[in-house]
Task: inverse folding
């Protein structure tokens, strides 16, 4: 990674467009009216989450009898909900599920990104017969709804003897993520000026060193953007987890725990707000930490990396 | 919006948050292990003599998949301990609220659990049709003959083969009330339907709104009305007509259904009767069933018809007892001599005939298990006649067990759970919801009849 800047110096400077689209957009969006609208939207979007946060600190009887806004007239504060959700002597505890979520999410993000990177490179910069047909085929796979694949996939996993482990979840999430990942990363790679690669090749770089020394550093925002997408998707996924992990807390992620938290007949739904906040904590942190990549990834295409 | 200069501080703060989150997770985990270890020795010493017939099954595992999740799962799991300790079998318990859809997916994919606790005869039939389920062993069948009786056995019999013993049960023919209010106002617990009606009128005359109800329950919104209607069907026309109605031998839009639904309407669609403390008739559709009975505690409502499992919804400081804040009485029959009981329950369907699975199935169908379970749980009851009512802890459980074991009682399983899924967990719920929000009875029963799969 430290060699990032070396190949760039050998490249003829790429002239940026005089007034970038981003610049225009920035000008238009920073009028006071636009700011006002943005603030209103932000408040509107945040109010329910805020209500959830307030609810999570209210006692069970209050949650069930009145709305969260009444909290300000008559504040009764309790940590019982969080205690119930985290206390492992209670079978509602989210502790194991929380750890499972990490065990599921991290490989389920790394596997598709790694594979998609390599595939996207091949599709973008290696000429081989049938490349375009294959690429269209991969992209077309995106339209297969995941619901139709669930039972056949589960049958395959059962035959392979890996049902009930983490493997079905990792593999399924990778399978479902790959078409979009390949497509997105391919487009990012295609937009990198071919001059860069040619220069690297003149300097004696093969495919491997071009990939690792030239493309990978430039792709960082794209990778981070897709990584966040995939992380949020996997972390918040219920369907795949329910189908392949089932109920118990051996492999199921926190979302499954959350779905079961309210109790057999929904008698403990006051715990949901506390559970939801524990579950939100991680994706929110990841998003905020990586948000600059996220924005850059969305605006990607420029070589400013 | 994306403040670059303060990014460093942000990262630090967020890294902190993440750290805290992780620590919480880890702490939760580690404390869990010690708790588990602590709870094992605390299990009461068990006399293993009754378990010797199961033989030595050391090292074997039985997986159980069920819709019973927290907090009811803890006593379930604990009630297996004597069996586990004596036979050496490990029971792997998996509770899942999405059980009803997932168990079919798993059965179809060839990944069924060893035993599933199926809460609906209709679903049981569907599972048997996948060809993966195995009939119950002879011992289980004998236990069911001895402890449950023919009516329960029939619910789990498909094409002449008996598949599953009943596990827990619930009693739906109950009306919650406040004993305090009854004593203060001089109300009597009614013993016939007419008395119930007279009591409601008396309450109206006293300036009260007697009934409260709520049917919102996510995608299952409407089910409490189906229970009301089944209860009325049983009371007005008797168990035989009820069976015909459930099996669609008489049409859903026939005179019986219409009269039964109208009988429900006499309570739930009567603006003088509902919806105590909650609003008008239409508020029934938007009130969740969990919250619907709570106005009783505040005195805003006097009567709430809901099953024994409603007990879990009262606040912890509400005393549920005959001399407490709330209690329930049996929803009376047409006259004091008939005693129809509407209820539900789970069945232990096995997908494997390994000896340890059969042993566990046998244990669950025995009176031994029923009494073990009774001793450690509240809000649970079984139709097992070997269950000693005195082992049950909470008064409402005792009442439910007494109702179930009453020789005069005629038990009928929840009809919507036996009807085809297109009706029992779809059209019936939806039309009932439309009905409470204004649709007339005739359109309602006609629409359900139309939806019945040919």
Result:
């Amino acid at each position: 990674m430290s060699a990032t800047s070396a190949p760039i110096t050998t490249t003829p400077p790429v002239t940026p467009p005089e007034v970038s689209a981003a610049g225009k957009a920035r000008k238009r969006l920073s009028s006071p009216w636009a700011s006002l609208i943005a603030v209103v939207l932000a408040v509107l979007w945040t109010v329910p989450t805020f209500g959830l946060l307030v609810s999570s600190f209210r006692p069970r009887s209050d949650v069930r009898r009145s709305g969260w806004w009444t909290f300000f007239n008559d504040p009764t504060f309790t940590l019982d909900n969080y205690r119930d959700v985290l206390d492992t002597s209670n079978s509602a505890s989210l502790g194991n599920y929380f750890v499972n979520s990490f065990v599921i999410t991290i490989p389920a993000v790394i596997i598709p990104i790694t594979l998609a990177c390599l595939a996207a490179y091949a599709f973008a910069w290696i000429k081989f017969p049938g490349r375009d047909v294959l690429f269209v085929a991969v992209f077309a796979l995106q339209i297969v709804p995941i619901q139709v694949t669930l039972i056949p996939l589960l049958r395959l996993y059962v035959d392979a003897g890996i049902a009930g482990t983490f493997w079905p979840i990792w593999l399924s999430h990778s399978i479902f993520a790959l078409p979009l990942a390949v497509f997105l990363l391919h487009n990012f790679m295609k937009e990198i000026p071919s001059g860069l690669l040619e220069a690297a090749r003149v300097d004696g770089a093969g495919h491997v060193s071009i990939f690792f020394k030239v493309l990978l550093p430039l792709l960082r925002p794209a990778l981070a953007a897709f990584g966040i997408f995939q992380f949020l998707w996997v972390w918040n996924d219920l369907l795949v987890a329910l189908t392949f992990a089932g109920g118990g807390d051996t492999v199921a992620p926190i979302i499954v725990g959350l779905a079961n938290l309210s109790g057999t007949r929904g008698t403990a739904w006051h715990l949901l707000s506390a559970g939801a906040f524990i579950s939100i904590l991680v994706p929110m942190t990841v998003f905020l930490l990586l948000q600059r990549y996220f924005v850059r990834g969305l605006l990607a295409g420029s070589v400013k990396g | 919006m994306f403040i670059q200069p303060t990014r460093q501080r942000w990262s630090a703060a967020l890294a902190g948050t993440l750290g805290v989150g992780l620590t919480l997770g880890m702490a939760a985990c580690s404390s869990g292990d010690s708790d588990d270890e602590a709870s094992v020795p605390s299990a009461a010493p068990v006399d293993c003599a009754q378990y010797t017939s199961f033989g030595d099954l050391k090292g074997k595992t039985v997986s159980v998949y069920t819709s019973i999740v927290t907090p009811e799962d803890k006593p379930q799991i604990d009630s297996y301990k004597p069996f586990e300790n004596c036979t050496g079998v490990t029971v792997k318990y998996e509770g899942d609220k999405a059980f009803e859809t997932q168990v079919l997916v798993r059965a179809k994919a060839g990944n069924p659990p060893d035993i599933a606790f199926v809460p609906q005869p209709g679903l049981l039939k569907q599972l048997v049709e996948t060809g993966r389920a195995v009939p119950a062993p002879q011992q289980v069948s004998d236990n069911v003959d001895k402890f449950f009786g023919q009516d329960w056995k029939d619910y789990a019999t498909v094409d002449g083969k008996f598949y599953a013993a009943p596990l827990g049960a619930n009693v739906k023919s109950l009306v919650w009330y406040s004993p305090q209010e009854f004593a203060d106002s001089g109300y009597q617990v009614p013993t016939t339907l007419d008395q119930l009606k007279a009591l409601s009128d008396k309450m109206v005359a006293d300036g009260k709104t007697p009934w409260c109800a709520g049917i919102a329950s996510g995608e299952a919104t409407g089910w409490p009305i189906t229970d009301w209607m089944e209860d009325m069907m049983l009371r007005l026309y008797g168990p035989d007509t009820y069976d015909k109605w459930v099996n669609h031998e008489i049409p859903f839009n026939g005179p019986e259904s219409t009269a039964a639904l109208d009988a429900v309407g006499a309570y739930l669609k009567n603006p003088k009767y509902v919806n105590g403390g909650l609003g008008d008739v239409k508020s029934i559709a938007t009130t969740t069933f969990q919250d619907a009975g709570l106005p009783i505690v505040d005195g805003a409502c006097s009567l709430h018809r809901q099953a024994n499992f409603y007990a879990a919804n009262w606040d912890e400081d509400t005393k549920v007892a005959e001399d407490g804040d709330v209690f329930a009485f049996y929803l009376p029959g047409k006259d004091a001599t008939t005693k129809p009981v509407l209820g539900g329950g789970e069945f232990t369907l096995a997908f494997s005939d390994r000896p340890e699975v059969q042993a566990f199935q046998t244990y669950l169908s025995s009176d031994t298990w029923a009494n073990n379970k009774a001793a450690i749980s509240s809000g649970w009851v079984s139709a097992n006649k070997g269950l000693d009512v005195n082992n049950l802890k909470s008064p409402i459980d005792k009442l439910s067990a007494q109702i179930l074991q009453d020789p005069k009682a005629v038990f009928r399983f929840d009809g919507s759970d036996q009807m085809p899924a297109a009706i029992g967990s779809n059209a019936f719920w939806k039309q009932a919801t439309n009905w409470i929000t204004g649709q007339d009875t005739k359109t309602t029963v006609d629409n359900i009849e139309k939806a019945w799969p040919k």
